[in-house]
Amino acid sequence: MACIDSILDKLRLLVPQGDLCKYDRALNVLKVELGLVKTFLLCQWKLRYQFVGLEDSVRENGQQFYSLLLGFEDDGLSPSDLAGSASTFGGILKSFKQGIRKSYVDISNSLAKSVSESRIRLNTRDFEKGGPVFWDGESYGKRYPSMLDRLLASSSSLTDEFMEFFHSLLENFVDILNWGEAYDSELEKLLEPLQEKLVFLKNFILFARSQGKPERKLMEHSGVVALSAAHLCHSCWFFRDDNEVFVEISFKIDEVKDQIKPVVEQVRLAYISILESKSSSLRMSTEANMCIVGNFVGSLLGNLWEFLVKCPAWFTSSLKHQIRILCEGLQFLRGILMKQQEDYDGLPGGIKDRIVAVVNDAAIVIFSLYQDNIPEASAMEIDLKLFCLLEKIKLVNAEIEKKYPVASRSKFPTTNALELIDLLLEKLKELESCEVDPLFSFANDRVDFLNSYLNKIQYIKVDRPLETFTYYDMPSWIIDLEQQIKLEKLRHKKMQADVPFLTSFLENNLEQHIKNEKHQLQTMEDDLVSLRSLLEENGEQHNHHEDPHALWSHVIEVAYKAEFVIGSLLAGDISFYSLMLFDDIAREIMLVKSLAQTATKIPRHVPSQETVRSETSGASYPVSSSGSISTVDEVEVVLQVEEKAVIDKLIKGLKQLDIISIVGVAGLGKTFLAQRVYRDLRVTSHFHIQAWCCISQTYCKSDLLLQILACIGQKTQFSKMDECDLAQELHQCLLGQRFLIVLDDVWDIEAWNALKSSFPEKNNGSRILLTSRLTDIIGTPYHLRTLDESESCDLLQKKLAVIREGGYSQEQNLLGRKIAKTCNGMPLSIAIISGILATLHQAGWEEVAEKISLTAMVGATEQCNRILELSYGHLPDYLKRCILYFGAFREDQEICVRRLTWLWIAEGFMQKSESECLEKIAEGYVMALINRSLVMVGQRRYAGSALPRELWSLVQLRYLAVLGWLKNGIPSSLEKLSNLETFLVRTKDDVGLSLLQDTLLKMQKLRHLHVYGALIDIGLANDNLESSSILNNLDTFSTMNLYLGQSIEKLIRKFPNIRRLKCCLVESAEFTADSNRVVVMNFLSHLESLKLNLGKVTMHCVELRLPSSLKKLTLEEFSWGIISTIRELPNLQVLRLNRQADGEEKQGSQDMEDSEEMEDMEEGEFFPELKFLKLKSLKIVRWKGLGHSFPHLEKLVLDDCKKLQKLPSRLGESPLKLIEVHRCPNLDRYQFEDIKKEQMDCGNMDLKILMPEEIEESSSLSDEDSDGWLPEEIEDSWLEIQTDGQANDHLP
Description:
Residues 889-940 form the Disease resistance protein winged helix domain. With 1292 residues, this protein is of the alpha/beta class. It has 8 domains: 1-123; 147-278, no CATH class; 283-313 and 322-371 and 392-405; 412-464 and 475-538 and 548-592, no CATH class; 640-783, 3-Layer(aba) Sandwich (Rossmann fold), CATH 3.40.50; 788-874, no CATH class; 877-937, no CATH class; 950-1140, Ribonuclease Inhibitor (Leucine-rich repeat, LRR (right-handed beta-alpha superhelix)). Helix 2 packs antiparallel against helix 7 and helix 8 packs across helix 12. The longest helix has 28 residues, at 97-124.
């Protein structure tokens, strides 16, 4: 064994050396295989198993190889010779692989048989006093140690042979996982979860031993598991190329993991019985034992997090909250145990003992949680035990902090305290409106349970005679009747220790809520109103309090706790812990109110408002947040020389695939330059395919491939492919095409190595464009320069001019130039500074200039970071919450604005206003962050199943997205999610998805309802439609069937404030020729966007009455008779006409040509505000009318109008920026020359006209005209509650 250890030590030192890099694979293989053989030899020695020839061969060949290793260091042996010798030695080891595998099977079978027979003897008391005997038929009467006896036997040497075997096994896993990370990811994925479970088991064994716990049961269990794991680890490596064996191994690994996890009842009860047994000693004096307990706490935390991810259905939100509190408490203790030895040594012995006792109790509670279905009484008892445990941890942590005070670190984000209090008051009013006080109801229900529990503790008997126990009281493998009585006595003793705390809780909490129903709610509300008044009164003065942040941070911390508790109460999700937390928070609110009153009485100088502004540099100049995103985004300094240089490298030069890298420090504008180049007409017309991929520091290869493929086709068609298929699919898509792929923000060469095989080299001028901070990343580098002084000042002036109207004083302009010069030519720093300056008066500018001057001598990256900190400090509190929320998304991830605003609203970030809806306010917040250059604009849009039972615990849920097939429609029990604001469904149902009217109209807080992949059929109950509720909050809804012949108007009136609506007009079964064909919507005074499909209505005229508020309109499969309705829309900015109805050309005039003409436009401003017009799949031949009927038209898209020949005359008089044409083969193209000339005569030199040969479908700009709020836009955001359509139609 010494020879093996020496070789392994040398290999671990040699492999990382640079001169061996070409040969490290052979040495790595030997390291893995020799380690596996070592583990087997340790197993064979411990269990006295004979394997003839292996040990001698390893010793002989190992000594020869070790001599070569020494020669490599001393005599200059070449690396290639060493690698060859390693392969030879490895081949010898491989020759034993079948024998070792068979031996593992024999040992495992023998040990399992031995353990089974031992349990039978223990259960029947049929064993000799001299010790266990293995009885065999052929050797009856002979007595020799069984395999189990050998496992449990104490080691003769100073080391523990079993733990040495276990440690070697874990080293095998580390070696193989390191190999897998470099060469075989499948091997890594297979073994890593099992390694985590084995580490937990090792830590459990060491903890039990350190506390003197009885080891027999644990060693029996651990021996069987460790032996199986060693067998699997060996087979997984040596037979990894045998697919049949590998598949078999993967199933067996799952079985071994299940034998370790406490989810199996026998395992769980065994673990708990070990922990509940009496400790013979508490040896916590040494650093080693501290680490043992600390490592065990770490394993418990791993179990907790795994449990939270896959918690059972009976788990409530409040129970999850308690688990998170438990995690925080254990993390604190682990920090003391693992990192703060000096602090721990200074603690009194009693506290040390209590730390160990708390860890022991925590393990018992954690293991108790691993149950799928438990009776209600058992669940309440677990809740009670967790409640007591949290109190013990709280007391121990308080004792430690008393001895070693910890600096206060608020866990809560800085925000507006007054807004939080308003939110709390609103929720308290909602709570008070409940018919039954939930606190009273819970207390009344739990008083009897707690009294019964305390009585049980008082009168329980634990001295039952042995004969009263049956064989089935406990699982057979942990039955030891004498030990069981001892365990029950220990449990009783622990339960008695909790009696004083539980009695106090019963008298001072539960019973008080019964006596004073709703009194506590009213008291809390009164205290909050009083506190708010005090804080508002001192709003301008709190910065001058001697410790202002302490008071306000305390207020915010208490408010966040209160928000959680009150939310739980509203959802009916209450526990012992949350009730006590409510009472504690009520006392904290009284304390904070007292502190605020004291602060009010402190005499202080109150400065003038202007002085406060000057001293705090707060935002004192109103900045509009309603500007155009596109306008802000277009403020830029055009570096024409740089652009031309990069473009020339892309479209000229070599025919081979070439890589160009834009390199430079952070904030220099690499991505900005790449975007300019990517969108340039010379580039878009040169390449057949263009794709953009953001990489960043952390990335996943499959995600990168999906990003690129999504630029080429529909992302959904690739979403279920694995990594290999995605790489192959991308290669096929690019094959034969001239492509440009942008890889943005590349941090290392590995990202390129992961993707390069998917980019074919066909000598057709394809290019890869990279941006990176590394100057030597790959390819031809283009070093981006900084801005000069003139460009810096110009950029700052342009940014400021767009953000804030009204201009600036001469002094401010001079200060601005000074500040711009100090930014070292970094565009990002200048842009962020502009966002700060736009909110300040001159005094604030002077302070900013002074602070920026202090950063002039630091590096560019550090200066940019400091400017970002300065910008964050100047944000109002309500925007700080919003910017911090971006941390929930991946770096460089594009975020749909619509989705983001819905999430902000669901989080309660918006300040309510009577004049504007929450969505408008949220969009204003986004604009404010863009103005400050803290958020980058990505893609711009023009103008602008049954569900799982776990949702019972999500009654507070405000944002829910479901992915899957809802077999029986949207379940009626959805109405139980009373706080739901956003509900999204992505499904595949060509018929329709039913939603009961009563269910919909009971969801009073619903703001957004969207189904993608199906139409929503609302089951109308006409008899009670008028008396049913109104959804005043509903803001967006798609896509709903509207049935002619039913109460369309009555239904739509239930959504009086809707802003965005998509619907499909359908004829109901009751519809006849005499039925009303008028669709009335003109009462929807807030409606801004409407998409209407008329394809399911027969060709009789339908009359539409639309509201004048409409800004965006899409009509699909429409009749020309409806067009006259559009003339009545004075605010219409976006119009899409898609697919003219079938058969329409056959009506009216016999002159086909005349009937296919778009009707003459009326004189005057036919579409006075129209900016965007798209005509798709229409049958028109000549578009009559005059161009000046569109005085504000900026973009015109013509798609698939195959008969179209002529455009309106004088169209060039419109302020056009873009005309885009697809699949219009008969269109006279000479008209565009006239249009362009007219535009130039009017001073417009920027008109772009994109024709079929100049634009590919994959890179079309027409994507910009998307509606901007389709559910598919938030495809990456789905909280994927996957369904298979097999469950019943109930929620949850």
